[in-house]
Amino acid sequence: MNLKIISALVKKEALQILRDPSTTIIAFVLPLMMLLLFMYGLNLDTPKVSLGLKIDDDTPQISNLIQSFNSSKYVRAKVYEDKDLMYKDISASKINGAVIIPNDFSKNLEKGDTASMLIITDGSYVNTANYVQSYPVAIANNWLSQSSYKTYLKPPVISANTRMWYNQDINSHYFILPGSFAITLNLVGLLLTALVIAREWERGTMESLLGTRVGKLDIILGKYIPYFILGILSLLFNVFLCIFVFKIPFHGSFVILFSVSALFLLTAIGIGLLISTIFKNQFLASQMSLGVGFLPALLLSGLMFPINSMPMFFQFLTMILPPRYYVTFIESEFMAGTIKNIVLINTIYLSILAILLFIAVYEKTSIRLEEGGK
Q1: Mean per-residue pLDDT for 67-82?
Q2: Alpha helix (H) ranges present in 187-281?
Q3: Which CATH architecture has domain 49-152?
């Protein structure tokens, strides 16, 4: 290992990064667009649903139930006189579901019997359908507890007080935006580096480089260092946007945040360089990097979909994917603060993987033209 050669290679790679506008776009513009999309275009919070109401019970007290639906911040209620028209609006997706109050609803309440109402949901949108099922029941129970019918009912046996830990505002952006760092670091560390060595072979510059006294370790460190620095700068940019622009609460340690993020970035760079070394073709390397890095970080990391709801095969598959461990760490670090067990487990795994990937890149990197040429 020659420090002068490494510094020269790092300078060469840094100049190439600065001259290539696509690198700046991937490192800074795409993460910005992604954060804006996740912040303003994606919302996993409780949605507001549109409900049709068909009231067949004309008792005066039932009018208060209608007002309860209208005053709910989670429901947009529309009263229908024609049941068929309401069904047509469900079919046309003008409303998400319907609630039908039968004509014996209030009579059953006065008798102390069970009063049933019909809830119709549009199952085309499963998540919304679940809310359509639960909202009317919650609204009706709340109305019942404040109505005159409560005198006919037995007092509740159990009373629950709910407290929300870590995310008191129940705001999905508090974990989506920090979790998106896994995608950002994969874009910088994996996608960009996947093209580096392949580009050298395609342009013929690798042959010129191998004609010098440069060693295998010099080449690898000359690729690792500049993209590691670029990834850290991209991470700084994302952290600044999340905390100071989008006002995402941060309860952890910046030292631990950047330390574990650096390990994850090293694993991403290792995977990218390994792909680039094996394929030596920019198109194949870019396609493979998207399949190996971007899609798992988005779909199998737990960022968008809970891992415990996946089929068992994919649950086991996520255990070998670095984004799963990083997303768990970054969301915990932002919302709950530094939890030693979570930090330790993720640090050990990412450290081992980063070392193994570095060794694999070293073994696969060729410095002989007859071994590495096309």
Answers
A1: 89
A2: 193-203, 205-210, 216-240, 254-279
A3: 3-Layer(aba) Sandwich (3.40)
